[in-house]
Specification:
ATP hydrolysis activity; binds adenosine-5'-triphosphate; ATP binding; binds magnesium ion; 2 domains
Length: 303
């Protein structure tokens, strides 16, 4: 289990991470989701002791990362897959990790097989790796010590859809065997596929957290009709909250109630379905828009 308690990280006057608290539970894959610059990497760097917290604390299985004697055996870390030494081969990089952690030699070949890198690929220099191959190698380095906890920053970045499915299965198996996985992403759909639980961060602050099913279920119903105004009126009379979307409404009620209300009001529907994360998506898009506006403002001020 990973526990983050009121973690704050300041760079001078700028607060990159602002009183962030969450837990990543054992046996679950927790997705850490936020737009660019939200504070995901900063939080993870603090977690693994690469940068000190301004205040608050992080514990991994009850201890701080710095207290771990041979950390690779307890926490597998993948922070920046492109930071690997470009002149070394994949096998060399993994062998260094194996030796540093004092592991049996056979672990190198086993781990390469586990992440789907062939002998040929392992013999190539990392500078000739595709992004997806780098991610697999980074994951191999994280896994080689057989840790119980994985902390992975954007591990699916650069993977194609089959690669993302492969990673989902690998992380699922890891969590089902009693492991804890925390992985970050700036893409909602990528993380939706992989994670059980979600922690959403925007501008350094946690804006939502819960199980994926809870967060998706909170999204209500999507309904489309040519007669949006009449349907909205009927729903408001039934004290149901609606918000407009293109050609229809997002409704805070289940599809059955929306269908019955439409029927009673004599409104013909074109589409009626659970919103399945549309609420989450809207929230995420708002966060993203907010962040890019801020960046533009900051750049404008600097110019
Ligand atoms: N060493 C640093 N000095 C000053 N500011 C920093 C430093 N590191 C990060 N920041 C700032 O902290 C904020 C959070 O950055 P961080 O890298 O944690 O975001 P992120 O969520 O990982 O984004 P991305 O999706 O782009 O990877 C950004 O505004 C960034 O510019
Ligand atoms: Mg980052």
């Amino acid at each position: 289990m990973i526990s983050v308690e009121s973690l704050t990280k300041q760079y001078g006057p700028f607060t990159a991470v602002d009183h962030v608290s969450f837990t990543a539970e054992t046996g679950r894959v927790t997705g850490f989701l936020g737009p660019n610059g939200a504070g995901k990497s900063t939080t993870m760097r603090v977690m693994v002791g690469l940068t000190p917290a301004s205040s608050g604390r992080v514990t991994v299985s009850g201890r701080s990362y710095r207290e771990l004697v041979n950390p690779g055996l307890e926490v597998g870390v993948l922070l920046d897959a492109s930071a690997q030494h470009a002149g070394r081969t994949g096998r060399e990089i993994l062998t260094i990790a194996q030796q540093t952690m004092g592991l049996p030699r056979a672990r190198v070949a086993e781990t390469l097989a586990r992440v789907g890198l062939t002998e040929d690929e392992a013999a190539r220099r990392v500078r000739d790796y595709s992004l997806g191959m780098r991610q697999r190698l980074g994951l191999a380095t994280a896994l080689i010590g057989e840790p119980e906890v994985l902390i992975l920053d954007e591990p699916a970045n650069g993977l194609d859809p089959a690669g993302i499915r492969w990673m989902r299965d690998l992380l699922r198996g890891f969590a089902d065997a009693g492991g804890t996985v925390l992985l970050s992403s700036h893409l909602l759909h990528e993380i939706e596929v992989i994670a059980d639980d979600l922690v959403v961060i925007g501008q350094g602050k946690i804006v939502a957290q819960g199980s994926k099913s809870e967060l998706l279920a909170a999204a209500g119903t999507l309904v489309r009709t040519a007669d949006v105004d009449r349907l909205a009126r009927a729903l408001h009379e039934a004290s149901v909250v609606t918000s407009p979307i293109d050609g229809g409404l997002r409704v805070d009620a289940d599809p059955e109630l929306v269908g019955e209300t439409a029927h009673r009001a004599g409104v013909v529907l074109r589409e009626l379905r659970p919103a399945d994360g549309a609420g989450l998506e809207e929230m995420f898009l708002e966060l993203t828009a907010l962040t890019s506006r801020d960046d533009t403002a900051r750049e404008g001020a600097a110019a």
